[in-house]
């Protein structure tokens, strides 16, 4: 997750230090199980991760919420996780953040 957020360094000049919260969805698989991880963070955290010359301590943290597992050998679990992924995809396509 850290390297993913570090890649956003070129966008940090566009972000104001404010109360805005950002989210990232990570879908992971461990053998036959699927997990969703939703990471929440703010612009200060991005600055902390991407700015090695930062003078001050970071008062911000990343919060990671894990959901699952869903078993891919169970048809009901596959239907459930597919519905969740579709809903999140539709929200992102409209420019909205998912609300866990």
TrEMBL record:
Q: Which domain of life is it from?
A: Eukaryota
Give the protein name, as stated in the record. Answer: Uncharacterized protein
Q: Which organism is it from?
A: Aspergillus lucknowensis
């Amino acid at each position: 997750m850290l390297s993913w957020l570090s890649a956003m360094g070129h966008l940090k000049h566009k972000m104001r230090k404010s109360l805005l919260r950002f989210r990232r969805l990570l879908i992971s698989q461990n053998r036959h199980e699927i997990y969703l991880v939703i990471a929440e963070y703010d612009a200060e955290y991005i600055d902390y991760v991407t700015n090695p010359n930062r003078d001050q301590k970071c008062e911000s943290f990343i919060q990671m919420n894990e959901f699952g597992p869903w078993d891919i050998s169970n048809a009901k679990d596959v239907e459930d996780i597919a519905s969740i992924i579709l809903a999140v995809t539709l929200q992102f396509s409209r420019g909205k953040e998912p609300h866990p």
